[in-house]
Amino acid sequence: MADNIKLVIAVVIMASAIALFYTYAEYSNLLRVLGLLVAAGLSLFIASKSTVGATAMSYIRDTQVEVRKVVWPTRQETVRTTLLVIVMVMVAAVMLWAVDSLLAWAVRALTV
Q: CB 88: neighbour CB atoms within 10 A?
């Protein structure tokens, strides 16, 4: 029950902040955005104290650990792979154009 109350409070804070952001349009955008960010931070903090929020935070931490384990390609590997993809797309396009032209010629020959 307490988790549900925490989540409802977090949603109410965020919804109120969004409504106030648009209600007070005559004030500076900087102040409104700062208020919205503070409310979002507070809302996330409250939501993270629930069971669902704690699970989500644990998932985020685990994904950050996994991202650090990834071996990212070098710039040279990325450029090579990109060029290979571009060449293969062009080859496939020429092949499809050739087959399309052949079929168009065959249809014209049969229908004339």
A: 10
Three-class SS state of 28: coil
Question: Quick check: pTM over 0.85?
Answer: no
Buried b (16+ CB within 10 A) or exposed e, 63-85: eeeeeeeeeeeeeeeeeeeeeee
Q: What is the mean pLDDT of the chain?
A: 94
Of 39, 43, 44, give the one whose Cα is nearest residue 20: 39
Cα–Cα distance, 46 to 39 (Å, whole number): 10
Q: How many CB atoms lie within 10 A of CB 43?
A: 20
In this predicted model, what pLDDT tens digit does every residue of 20-53 receive, in sequence order?
Answer: 999 998 999 999 999 999 999 999 999 999 999 8
Here the tokens at position 46 are: 């409250």
